[in-house]
Amino acid sequence: MAIERAEPEDAGEILTVQRAAYVSEAQLYGDPFIPPLVESADQIRRAVETATVLVARDAGRIVGAIRGRLSGTTCMVGRLVVAPDVQRRGLGGTLLAALHDEVVSAQAFDLFTGHLSEGNLRLYRGHGYRETRRERMSDHLTLVHMRRQL
Questions:
Q1: Torsion of Cα atoms, 79 then 132 then 120 then 95, to 10°
Q2: Which of 72, 75, 81, 97 could form a disulfide linkage to 68, CB 3.0–4.6 angstroms apart?
């Protein structure tokens, strides 16, 4: 398994993994229109061109991805995705750690996840993230904002 910087031509494959990975989240929250499921390949391509996007490749196939965008001295982490057939093998944590190592100028890393996403919350806590606040988005969704301070 190799972790490397994404290229613009990876956008379509990243989108495929992203959609597969977020189906369970959409089901958990009863919302098929969550942003990761309605994002386009062009939007992902722009992210690859303007942010730090890492992919995990297994025998050439993209099986995971993560994004980070620097805002001042804080890296905003987003779209950590792992293909369903390789989940629960530590790849999410590997991608998160790789992003921490890649964005060396960051003094903190911020992210958010849904309040019902226990696996995500456990992963982030295990990598040093602490809850900073909760934001109620609707009757069925509260975002849990987290930070890893260096």
A1: 50
A2: 75
